[in-house]
Design brief:
alpha/beta, Alkaline Phosphatase, subunit A, 2 domains, six-stranded mixed sheet, two-stranded parallel sheet
């Protein structure tokens, strides 16, 4: 407002002087010179107002550099929110005792058949090497036993696959033999996964075609057991030949079960040939980028003949570790399902809440410290 007032007075003065000049020609040059001088002075006064602010702003860069030194940036930068995931876990060293992931994103289950623990571990060279490199439980019970370890019956394959996926004893879920056509309406992990919006697939060793495809172990395919999965069964029951394509394309489901035929799962074939076949399935997975990320847990299980063989694999597993015998209820198929549900943030089904969890065996996240 002050500048406007000065300029207004100046223009009034100039106007008055011009009128005088018109009446008095002798003083015209003098008056013009005076006006010129006034113009210069006012112009200078106005001009100095712009540079005048410059000195007051020039110290600002200096004060900024002194109040925020470069070193303060590096010291105040927060650490990454996600722990660094292992990159050197592979088929040679599949378990390295790395920090467990903050969230498990994939559970892979490979199912074999009809052997006791000491028939395989210590006998089959590849599988024994996995036990030594990763971990195992030498007291794992099948579905002949209830969650508390008491006897439920004498069952074969299908009842154990059902218990693994619904958390109930065969006398409760009703699938007590290997009859292909029998089904049950009990809740199951596939239904849980569907409700949670998580991906899942059973990979069977046969041609494409979904849940209607017959193959030499089709009664081992548990997604086919459940009446609440019938409508969507085909899209989640796929050939094993597509498994590694899903792994390598970043489409590994949250939950998957690999189901070889009886000619490869030690059901009909020798332990030696089954051992070789297991390596053809597991080594490509263990050498994948998906596994090296550290959020894939692998459960290599047998269906029946307690204590069953088993291998537990993940980069976070401490090499050569063994699951300790719990004081209460035994490690069993109920424990497996409970651990899968805990890893994938699903509610606990059936009697799994009474089974010992194996989650801690797979290590602790980096924020909690690495398991010894």
């Amino acid at each position: 407002m002050l500048t406007v007032g000065v300029n207004t007075l100046f223009f009034k003065s100039v106007s008055a002087n011009i009128k005088i000049f018109n009446k008095d020609g002798n003083m015209k040059k003098i008056r013009l010179a005076q006006i010129a001088m006034v113009l210069v002075l006012i112009s200078s006064a106005c001009g100095t107002s712009v540079p005048a602010s410059t000195p007051s702003t020039t110290p600002i860069p200096t004060s900024t550099s002194t109040s925020v030194p470069p070193t303060s940036t590096s010291t105040t930068t927060p650490p990454p929110a996600t722990p660094t995931l292992p990159s050197n876990a592979d088929a040679t060293n599949p378990c390295i005792g790395a920090p467990a992931p903050a969230q498990w994103n994939h559970v892979v289950v490979l199912m074999f058949e009809n052997k006791k623990y000491d028939q395989v571990v210590g006998i089959a060279p590849y599988i024994t090497s996995l036990v030594n490199k990763c971990g195992s439980a030498d007291h794992w019970m099948d579905s002949d036993y209830k969650v508390d370890g008491s006897k439920d019956g004498n069952y074969h394959s299908k009842p154990s696959y059902a218990t693994l996926t619904n958390g109930l004893s065969p006398s409760v879920h009703g699938l007590v033999d290997d009859t292909y056509a029998t089904k049950t309406d009990v809740d199951n992990i596939y239904h849980q996964l569907s409700l949670a919006g998580k991906s899942f697939k059973d990979y069977y060793e046969a041609k494409a075609g979904g849940c209607g495809v017959k193959f030499g172990a089709d009664y081992h395919d548990p997604i086919r057991y459940y009446t609440n999965m019938t409508a969507i069964c085909d899209q989640h029951d796929v050939p094993l030949s597509t498994f590694m394509a899903d792994v390598n394309s970043g489409n590994l489901p949250a939950f998957s079960i690999i189901l070889p035929t009886n000619d490869h799962s030690m059901h009909k074939n020798s332990i030696s040939s089954g051992d070789t076949y297991a390596q053809t399935i597991l080594d490509p997975l263990l050498n994948s980028q998906a596994y090296a990320k550290g959020d894939v847990a692998i459960f290599f299980l047998w269906d029946e003949d307690s204590p069953i063989p088993n291998v537990l694999l993940a980069p976070s597993v401490v090499p050569g570790s063994m699951v300790s015998i719990p004081a209460g209820n035994p490690v069993s198929h109920f424990s497996a399902l409970r651990t899968w549900e805990e890893m994938l943030n699903l509610p606990l089904l059936g009697d799994t809440n009474l089974a010992p969890s194996l989650l801690q065996f797979f290590g602790k996240p980096e924020s909690q410290g690495v398991s010894p």
